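Dear Dr. V.,

Thank you for agreeing to look over these. As mentioned in my earlier message, I'm a first-year student in the group and I'm still getting used to reading structure tokens, so any feedback on how I've presented them would be very welcome. I ran two proteins. I've put each sequence directly above its structure. The first is here:
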Amino acid sequence: MVRAAVLPAVNAPLQITEIDLPEPGPGQVRIRLAAAGVCHSDLSLSNGTLRQPVPAVLGHEGAGTVTAVGPGVTSVSPGDRVVLNWAPSCGDCHFCGLAEPWLCANSGLAANTPYATAADGTELYPGLGTAAFAEETVVPARAALPLPDGVPLADAALLGCAVLTGWGAVHHSARVRAGESVAVFGVGGVGLATIQAARIAGAASIVAVDVSPAKEELARAAGATDFVTAGEDTARRIRKLTGGVGTDVAVECVGRADTIRTAWSATRRGGRTTVVGIGGQEQQVTFSALELFYFGRTLSGCVYGNSDPARDLPVLAGHVRSGALDLSQLVTDRIGLDGIPAAFDAMLAGKGGRSLVVF
């Protein structure tokens, strides 16, 4: 039996309880978690914005040590340090064939298959296929990525979602070039990772935007050159900071229609806006046909940073070892499983960066 945070139903309070976790079957790996980040996507799964069969153990941003492997597993061995990949590509679908593993049609299959049982025998589902809000988990082998040396295991949990997403938004989606200006909307865990990625890319200026002025210190520590408290005139103030032109790139990490529209409006003619935040179906963004023609801007969605985790993880580890990427800057609270509900409340209130569950 292992302790876990169980979501019994959509919009129900999490229950910290013991669950029965089986030994890994064919193609599976059992992992003892060192840490798990509390991501806004977990909140979206708990309130029904994102679909997830329940009851479920949430948590998808994690790192730990392999304790056992099932038959046929050769990619990792007991004792290996690994990072969880919540969207492992199958390698066989149409999108994998296009070398776009972040769009894999089969990456979510594990989330729809029970993986453990509650004390009363009820079957439990793994949130986003990984179930990282537990002392241990069992995942498909392709969801366990070997962690390169030189990266602290607990902090490495952040590489599994926030950092891969922010890094990919900058380097793969927006393709920020040295000397360009970047605006980052939302200074949570992903936003802070995005700011660091923009700094590493050589952005000349980085404008951080958030509803909370208390986020300025976090943003500047990550590399922001300017900070704007979000309001009705946000786009105008950003253009003023960039000589009246607007930024070359905007990265939206919130997932709200008004924020997406503001991010788009804050870029220059020909600018590029990448949307990382996950919003609900009711969030509708509108543009006039004339402004689309006149401004010539690009608006694009971004899934998991358009990243290939197997390719990008060693690159990120190199930046961690060099000191260019500081994972600890993303973390504002280190908590236990009991602290997850409070971490959800903090996200809803727009407070802090990443909360990290440390086991």
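The second protein is here, in the same arrangement:
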Amino acid sequence: MSFERPARPNRSQLSVPGSSSRFIEKAAQSAADIVMLDLEDAVAPPDKPAARRTVIEALRDVDWGARTVSVRINALDTPFMYRDLIEVAEQGGDRLDLIMVPKVNKAADVHLLDVLLGQIEMATGRKRIGLELQIETAEGLQNVDAIAAASPRVESLHFGPGDFAASIGARTTSIGGPVPDYAVLGEPDGAGRRDPHLADPWHYVLARIVVAARAAGVRPVDGPYADFKDEEGLRWSARRAAALGFEGKWAIHPGQVETLNAVFSPAPEEIERARRILEALAQAEREGRGAVALDGRMIDLASIRQAQVMVEKAKRLGLA
């Protein structure tokens, strides 16, 4: 069975503990593009069955407005995954849009989920459920191309920085923030001082994920920035992700949503520039000219494609 992937806004993905009805109701009133009800890391093992019931009730009873709603189930190697998937998908109603799956290691993991969800949809008549997949292990990153293309049900790939760092044995406890030891010393100045220059230990991982996602036609989404009181650090982390081609980023606190929505939205001047490029292209076509110029500069095909992507994104976000 084939599906057309919805073009969902995904600038901010707000993670909410599935065990807290109060937090869930607050998240439903937030400006997040996607609200994700978490049954995995945010819930202690003894509380997971109760949290599952809380999430199902919230999917049915809370007014979610027009926003997309996702549920993060527990990983495939846990005793909770099966019940999470079956009960949430069967009982959660049609306000459930997506299932987030942690620690996806290979394409076979996705095939299993695809078959189970297909069976549930046929048996219950419920609407189609998309998949969001977290890349959180060395094995998952090694197989990321096959994972991204494993099913048309896959809508997005997400980086999980904390578990990935543990998977590769990285010497850090930071989640989404800088790693002080990942630096090089500069040349000595006149007084013999050598300043350290921080590098980005996750650049390869992020670039690998974004290329795999874009090649498969799915959304790449960056993981959380754990220090939710550090707005400037969050902004720079989001700017890095946006520069690499990511669609958005996780929020672990409602206070992070506004910053993420702003960073991952095209600026008004960018939208206007893109519009002018497309208008110049249309004018050139009407006049039978093969060359397109704007403000005294020639515009190449790559610039035109970038402008088209920019305008389409602005339309999806209601900015154009």
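From my reading of the second output: The CA atoms of residues 36 and 167 lie 24 Å apart. The chain is about 45% helix and 15% strand. Does that match how you would interpret it?

Kind regards,
E.
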